[in-house]
Design goal:
By secondary structure, the chain is of the alpha/beta class. The chain is built from 4 helices and 9 strands. It has one domain: Rossmann fold, CATH 3.40.50. 26% of the residues lie in helices and 34% in strands. A hairpin with a 2-residue loop joins strand 5 and strand 6. The longest helix is centred in the first third of the chain and has 15 residues.
Length: 175
């Protein structure tokens, strides 16, 4: 069982009406600035997946990079970035996903992960689940196995977990 880390919630700041009226933005920069908070966050994700044979951590642009790279290091795994279109310098595979109004796309290098790889997907927030679901499809289409998804915080009222199927989902702080 995981140690009590509910105090991490105190390191997440609410910003009312950002980016638009009626939205309360969850700002993780105080958590990032707190050495113990950052260490505990990375350590908690590591501890959840330590025995799962993870050999690659896929971080979703951009805050998923902040947490994904140190988690990969702690697990002795490689780190693979998933980015918005046109940001990666080499050949890519892409996955399109639906937004509230329109579509978007994520890309990963063609050799980022492949058959036999065991992948942990990491991002800062699980909200509606669109980017996490698209990333999962991208990884699985490449032949790799998603062993789980890890988020620093989850906005449960938005229902994103429901878009991730039977995958194991770990969120450290839930709203």
């Amino acid at each position: 069982m995981r140690a009590d880390i509910t105090w991490l919630r105190g390191l997440i700041r609410d910003i009312p009406d950002h980016p638009q009226a009626g939205v309360v933005f969850k700002d993780i920069t105080p958590l990032l600035a707190d050495p113990q908070g950052l260490t505990v966050t990375v350590g908690a994700i590591h501890d959840e997946f330590e025995g799962d044979g993870v050999d690659h951590v896929v971080g979703i642009e951009a805050r998923g990079f902040i947490f994904g790279a140190p988690v990969a290091h702690s697990l002795g795994a490689g780190f693979v970035p998933v980015r918005k279109p046109g940001k990666l310098p080499w050949q890519t595979v892409a996955e399109e996903y639906t937004l509230e109004y329109g579509t978007d796309r994520l890309e990963m290098h063609v050799d980022g992960v492949g058959p036999g790889h065991r992948v942990l997907v990491v991002d800062d927030v699980l909200a509606t689940g669109g980017t996490a679901s698209a990333t999962t499809r991208l990884v699985e289409r490449s032949g790799a196995t998603v062993v789980g998804l890890a988020f620093v915080l989850e906005l449960g009222f938005l229902g994103g977990r429901g878009k991730l199927g039977e995958h194991r989902v770990v969120s450290l702080v839930e709203y």
